[in-house]
Design brief:
Helix content is 29%, strand content 16%. By secondary structure, it is α/β, with parallel strands linked by helices. The chain has one domain: Alpha-Beta Barrel (TIM Barrel), CATH 3.20.20.
């Protein structure tokens, strides 16, 4: 089959026994390792996690970064420090919420494609060992925030051809989704299933995934880059960057909210990809709930300065709730610079709590 997802082709001019486990093997998120109240106990808890040390002087970038990197980094830090004061308070989450108590470190892709990310690029055990090493680096970089590893599977994949139903997307079958779930379970982690809807809709693609989302350790991502509606009707996915409106995202939130309520699940996480303003032009109208925690995820690639600019312009200046930051093992290093480190990214404000690697 042909997969046409986040394959590293530029489509835009801007960047794109465990102590946390309980006796049943589920992640125990009601208290932190020191017995503090669990995530969502109060709005101030969430605010403190995303803004800790906001008034401290940033330690700066590693030696060897360019002047352009330094300028963009400083601008992002200033913008974040200013935005924190009025950052929207997240709804007080229900018991069992993951954010902001934990940081998630996710490996992204599809096992049928080497171009879409690490899930398909490396053999299974090598990939999982890499995930272990990456999660450990984040634990060492910020010992105050426990890390949960995750597998982020593109379960509905945008295609370069229309297909028999004309929807320009391919739905992965149960075998692939269960394989990814087993990977996540092997690391006592989370599974995210991601939707690249093409010319289909969220209303058509979300319901078949609900049987997986009924599991307490399965969460969701949606990718506006491959949502070919509004001004993108009739255009092949990847030929232009797609678009979602807040109404689309809010529809997903309401479906997940109802699922959590009816099945008595812990809160879900919804990851929304973004590396351009027009991918979600009215992002401030997205409405998280106490049952659905929203991560606005900066997933653009490029040199450090471009990633800092993108985080500032498309995440910090359009606040929603929690934030994410993406790393590309190959595309981020095309300019010859090393990939950003954990300590460099941790200085951004708000502090990203969802880190994804492709």
């Amino acid at each position: 089959m042909t997969l046409a997802g986040c394959d590293g082709t530029s489509t835009a001019s801007v960047a794109k026994p465990d102590s946390t486990k309980n006796a049943t093997g589920e992640v125990a998120r009601g208290t932190d390792p020191n017995g503090a109240p669990g995530a969502g106990a109060s709005d101030s808890n969430a605010h403190s996690r995303i803004s800790a040390n906001a008034n401290d002087t940033a330690t700066g970038l590693n030696p060897g970064r360019t002047r352009h990197d330094e300028v963009s980094f400083s601008a992002a830090i200033r913008a974040g420090r200013k935005a924190i004061a009025s950052w929207p308070a997240a709804p007080a989450a229900l018991p069992g919420a993951i954010l902001p108590q934990y940081r998630i470190v996710a490996y992204y892709g599809n096992p049928h494609s080497k171009r879409m990310g690490v899930l398909g690029e490396y053999p299974e055990q090598e990939m999982l060992s890499m995930l272990d090493d990456t999660a450990e680096k984040w634990r060492k970089a910020d010992p105050s925030t426990p890390v949960i590893p995750a597998i982020h599977l593109v379960a509905v994949v945008a295609q370069g051809y229309a297909g028999p139903d004309g929807k320009w997307r391919l739905r992965e079958g149960p075998d692939t989704i269960e394989q990814a779930y087993r990977w996540a379970q092997s690391r006592q982690g989370l599974l995210f299933v991601d939707i690249q809807a093409g010319h289909s809709t969220l209303q058509q693609e979300l319901p078949p995934l609900l049987k997986y989302l009924e599991r307490p350790d399965v969460h969701l991502g949606v990718d506006p880059e491959f949502y070919m509606h509004y001004k993108r009707e009739g255009i092949r996915p990847s030929a232009k960057v797609g678009q979602m409106m807040s109404a689309d995202v809010n529809y997903v939130i309401q479906v997940l909210d109802q699922l959590v309520r009816e099945k008595k699940l812990p809160p879900k996480i919804l990851v929304v990809h973004r590396f351009r303003a027009d991918m979600v032009p009215d992002a401030e109208s997205i409405r998280p709930t106490s049952r659905v925690q929203v991560v606005m995820h900066m997933d653009g690639w490029g040199p450090p300065w471009l990633k800092f600019d993108s985080y500032k312009d498309y995440i910090v200046q359009h606040p929603v709730a929690f934030t994410g930051f993406k790393f590309f093992y190959h595309n981020d290093t095309k300019s010859g610079e090393p990939m950003l480190t954990e300590l460099e990214v941790l200085q951004l404000l708000p502090h990203p709590l969802y880190l994804q690697y492709q």
